[in-house]
Amino acid sequence: MARDDMPQSDFRDAILWHLAYTLGKDPDHAQVFDWRLALSHAVRDRIVDRWMAATRATYRADAKRVYYLSMEFLIGRLLQDNIVNLQLADEAQAAVESFGLDYAGLLLDEPDAALGNGGLGRLAACFMESLATLGCPAYGYGIRYEHGLFRQSFAEGRQVEAPEDWLEQPFVWQFERPEARFTLGFGGRVATRDGRAVWEPESFVQAEAFDTPVIGWRGAWANTLRLWAGRAVDPFDLDRFNAGDFAAAVEAEALARTISRVLYPEDSTEKGKRLRLTQEYFFSAASIRDILRRFEADHADLRLLPQKVAIQLNDTHPAIAGPELVRILHDERGLPFDEAVGITRGCVNYTNHTLLPEALESWGEGLFADLLPRHLQIIDRIDEADAKAHPDRRNTARGDGKVRMGELSFILSNRVNGVSALHTGLMKTTVFADQHRIWPDRIVNQTNGVTPRRWLLGCNPRLSRLIAQTIGDGWVGDLEQLHALEPHVADAGWLDAFAAVKAANKADLCDWIAREHGVALNPQALFDVQIKRIHEYKRQHLNILEAIALWQEMRENPSADWTARVKIFGGKAAPGYFFAKDIIRLINDVAAVINADAATNEKLQILYLPNYNVTLAERLIPAADLSEQISTAGKEASGTGNMKFALNGAPTIGTLDGANVEIRELVGAENFFLFGLTAEEAEARRAVPDHAARAIAADPRLTRAVEAIRSGTFSPGEPDRYANIVENLTRADYFLVASDFADYWRAQREVDFAYANRTEWTRMAALNVARSGWFSSDRTIRGYMQDIWNAKSLLGQE
Ligand code: CR1
């Protein structure tokens, strides 16, 4: 094949062509890495035409565009996702195997792009995929972090963080756009000229765009994920270089690049805070300019902006986009201030993802004024006008020397949404009660969802095949069709097939764990999985306490008919969150002791898998029997892992929190293991003096489990290693671990009992699948399009 024979149709040839002409490799010497890149290029070629067609269709229709601004896009690996959405899986596999290569191995060679921390970032990635699937013209805007979330390993049970380097190798899916650059100012002062405010920044940085196409199901539509990278305005100082000061010559570039270097730098220091606010302004301001540039290319009247542009703030991180838009419209384009605010409010919407006070951003006004002096004036003016219009308003965006980003987002938004029914209700009665009273129509609910392409079709091919054999493949684009499985749940043969899928997935997981981690698991055991960020409110420590109590009871009564269990944990703790890191170490210490106990280890094993990420989730979820969703009620805004487990046939043990409530309603109370205080009861319980001590005293199992930690059973030689955890559990216990323990224990024993009747269990698991269709992110995005963005699908017009 010659260079001119760029193959259009034959996939095998396309791979060989890219191997030669894109990568410069001879097939005889190509490594897995080269083949994977060649395959990725061949796949990418099939995306480009559709991507351009979608963009052209959007221009032609002068359609309203959705802009999803998010500090995080936890996209994970893209090769398989793209192959699945283009329906190329069989072709790709055949081609790869024809070269004598292992297809699964090739897919796994891709680094996992961890440009997010957890649920918030992964939601943004699912939303991008659903926006493309639904043909809604949309752009994701974020930061192209050189180092995503840290890589986690354990040393003597403790979390060790190492930089993650996904960009050390070419990222095939991105297109660099050196021509798409904006220069952004920071600091300086605000001057007045001809009665108008003029911001005179002190320093400047450039934002350079990198575009990644996001292709929807069946390749019908593609949108753009545009990530900004920091660049110096003058990257190289030749005079300094010639004077021999080589480091100083590139200092500006190093500083500019710092902005897009890492995700969530530690914000416990002033420097960290400053960088974080710099990142937020950097990507929000670059995005606003890009949005305006695109709008102004075709429209002269800025008052049309709300008809053509919907901006979604994914949490408060991009909240500064609002004041930035006001600033440009008023200071630079000359619109009256109130009109600029009105237009901004017509475009911007805000999703709240948490009620935890420590996660609601606020900035000291000193820092804010130093970095964004003009924006502070604008915020003050808006806030004062609002205060005048509503004299009974209590919560304002300013005051106490702070800029509060939640309040700011609220007052500059057309719609504000929560992410589950319970969470949205709590927003109205707690953090935004004051605002809700004044603007009763602003808060709406959009319960989260997950994309079935990645979280069922891609990650669970066996179950997908069984479903397709049973009800056809319409469910992939219309997940509610899973309901058609329900009648089959009564068919013993079909249930056997369903059970066989789970067993095979578990066997795969066991093989991988044996290979990668040298641990042999009992595949007959119930696989009980808790994977998510480590946080006190998610209560991994409740789970490990239950494991300790169970182990103690098994030792006491080894011949009882225990249901064998493997408890699997995965998750990272924020580097500065010491309590969470203690929990990680405790789980590892407990695992070491329990796994070494020959009296129990056929019935109880504990495994903490390091470096939890999207790829690991894709491995674990299809093999899970039980989904742990045990947060303190009122604290988990929604959860999305909970939906992925249910969809893959793992019933939930959980509290009435976040979207658990809706999962339970849909799958049926009899197919969900409920325990614990409700959000209301939890609030009330906190007011009871000594609630923790009382709960512990009332429960001999809990007393004994806590005592084992206190006395050093899991930290021999260092009994006070977990003094902090013990102290917290027995005294403050804000997250009510002690209060919920007894009921959690009860529910776990119900799980044991239910799992022992395997046919009944399988029925329950299958009903979870059949009734989880509502949790597709396609449903969520339709909701946003209708209730928030007023955006239309352009499918069929490309
Ligand atoms: C919430 O904790 C929710 C995701 C996505 C998280 C989780 O319950 O599913 O958002 N919030 O909505 C968050 O990360 C900063 O806040």
UniProtKB/TrEMBL annotation:
It is found in: Cytoplasm. The keyword Cytoplasm applies. Belongs to the glycogen phosphorylase family. Its cofactor is pyridoxal 5'-phosphate. It catalyses: [(1->4)-alpha-D-glucosyl](n) + phosphate = [(1->4)-alpha-D-glucosyl](n-1) + alpha-D-glucose 1-phosphate. Its EC number is 2.4.1.1. It holds the Pfam family Phosphorylase. GO terms for molecular function: glycogen phosphorylase activity; pyridoxal phosphate binding. Signal peptide: none annotated. This is Alpha-1,4 glucan phosphorylase. One of its GO terms (cellular component) is cytoplasm. InterPro entries: Glycg_phsphrylas, Glyco_trans_35, Pyridoxal_P_attach_site. CDD domains: GT35_Glycogen_Phosphorylase (cd04300).
